[in-house]
Design brief:
The protein is built from 19 helices and no strands. It is an all-alpha fold. The longest helix is centred in the C-terminal third of the chain and has 39 residues.
Length: 510
């Protein structure tokens, strides 16, 4: 079978799954208004999907062996497509949440299975090309998702952000039937089902994802709900690890962490996506709350970084076969951390060019980071274990992003409070600079029609509002500085990784 047809076949469902992860965010207000739901109720449409996704991803290798990989891929696409239709016709918020859970179950297996098929389809010397194709799809999804979701919601209705998945899903099913063939070791296998492993993993990962998504909104340890979910998650994940290490037929083979390169690669992946997702969340908030950008303009600022990633990925895909991938990975991490450092220099007078440039640099760095990281992590994994390995790899990538978003959401609020407390100490009537500024500010207020305001009252109010903005800006700077330092600190982990196999046995599929 032609490997390029296989690549297109597996990238289609992967792309719609990635797009669907971000497309709902921009339509949330429309969904809430249409279904008469509260803010907390509407956010469950995102949380439920992410939780179901997180539960299924590590199971994909085991499910592929149990049902046969082609059958499992077809079932996942079919379930994702049907549930997309059901989401589009949801009649209340409760039904939408249920259908989003089903959609998450269907979508969870698409990315790991597609990645495993690509790595097995292309011979080892072309793994760089395979990962460039996969990377272009995964980078394109987050760029087009918010823009597509916003346009569809504004011009049609929120229902259509789900309906557009249906024709792509049907095409994907037809292509999988035509072009995907299971290797003998991944055809359907009779095996004992690890019921305890499934139960512990589902509860542990599901609760963890909810804690990360809802923690800041519920004020973490101030919430009994979050405390109990955290304890349940810890307890069940600990039981899951014990069960899987001693099981003869584990649902997730944790012994694969005996491979040093795979372990280091997963650590780097976790912390890289921790920082990346945190930056992607921080940047639009900064643009909309402090700089006055619209949601659409904030989305456009993210686009140039995606374009430079699409340019860098094929270059990196060719270089990994000529240069030690460890050197390319180090270069990618250095460039990406430098881009985050540039973001830490933002202020409230930053021009559009000054804001876009770090995103361009970040996109370029990510292009050189994504491919060598996956090759170094997965190239020494046996083909029989590739589905299990890609499932774990994708789970830790997603969890890294969830931890990063939860961390910066909390840090942003805490640091803003810290800087506000520090700055307000200087906001006193005895401060000479404040005494000189108040008459000028009062005159400005009168010119703007606030003639009835008391001079000091109006001036102090204006100054205090500016103080809050400055405190918020300083908290953004702190977050970006910390994320840049984190990315620099993970660079030494590359030294512990081993270079991929130079020539591994492979079956030609041309």
């Amino acid at each position: 079978m032609n490997k390029w047809l296989v690549a297109i076949t597996v990238m289609l469902p992967t792309l719609i799954q990635i797009v669907d992860t971000s497309v709902v965010n921009v339509a949330l207000d429309h969904i809430r208004g249409s279904l008469s739901a509260g803010i907390d109720e509407s956010t469950w449409t995102i949380t439920s999907y992410l939780a179901a996704n997180a539960i299924i991803i590590p199971m994909t290798g085991w499910l592929s062996r149990l049902f046969g990989r082609k059958r499992y891929l077809l079932f996942s696409i079919f379930l994702f497509t049907i549930s997309s239709f059901l989401c589009g016709i949801a009649w209340n918020i409760q039904s939408l949440v249920v259908f989003r859970v089903i959609q998450g179950v269907g979508g969870g297996g698409l990315q790991p299975v597609s990645q495993a098929i690509l790595l097995e389809t292309f011979p080892p010397q072309q793994h760089g090309t395979a990962m460039a194709i996969f990377g272009m799809g995964t980078m394109f999804g987050p760029i087009i998702g918010p823009l597509l979701g916003g346009w569809i919601t504004d011009n049609w209705s929120w229902h259509w952000i789900f309906f557009v998945n249906i024709p792509i899903g049907i095409i994907s099913i037809l292509m999988v039937l035509s072009f995907i063939v299971d290797p003998p070791y991944l055809e359907r296998t009779r095996m004992k089902i690890d019921y305890w492993g499934i139960a512990f993993l589902s509860v542990g990962v599901g609760c963890l994802q909810i804690v990360l998504d809802k923690g800041q909104r519920e004020d973490w340890l101030s919430s009994t709900f979050i405390i109990w979910l955290g304890l349940i998650s810890f307890f069940f994940l600990a039981l899951f690890i014990l069960i899987e290490l001693y099981s003869q037929t584990p649902i997730v083979n944790l012994r694969i962490f005996g491979n040093r390169s795979f372990t280091m690669g997963n650590l780097i992946t976790f912390f890289t996506f921790f920082a990346l997702f945190a930056c992607i969340v921080l940047l639009p908030i900064y643009l909309q709350t402090l700089m006055g950008y619209t949601a659409f303009l904030a989305g456009l600022v993210l686009c140039p970084g995606g374009i430079t990633s699409l340019i860098a990925l094929p270059i990196a895909g060719k270089l990994v076969n000529k240069i030690n991938p460890k050197a390319i990975l180090a270069f990618g991490l250095v460039v990406t951390s430098y881009s985050v450092y540039l973001m830490a220099q933002f202020n409230m007078q930053a021009s559009l060019e000054a804001i876009i440039w770090p995103r361009i640099v970040m996109g370029f760095g990510l292009g050189f980071l994504f491919i060598p990281l996956q090759i170094l992590s997965l190239s020494r994994i046996a083909k029989e274990e590739m589905g299990n390995a890609t499932g774990i790899f994708n789970l830790l990538r997603n969890l890294g992003g969830s931890f990063g978003v939860a961390f910066v959401a909390t840090l942003l609020v805490r640091r803003a409070q810290f800087h506000q407390d520090h700055l307000v100490q200087h906001l006193t009537i005895f401060d000479r600079n404040l005494q000189l500024a108040l008459p000028q500010i009062s005159q400005l207020l009168q010119e703007r029609g606030f003639a009835n305001s008391l001079p000091n009252q109006g001036g102090l109010g204006l100054i205090y509002n500016e103080l809050l903005r400055q405190a918020s800006m300083l908290s953004f700077n702190d977050c970006f500085y910390l994320l840049a330092a984190m990315m620099v600190l993970i660079i030494p982990l590359i030294l512990l990784m081993r270079r991929g196999k130079e020539s591994a046995p492979s079956v030609s599929i041309d």
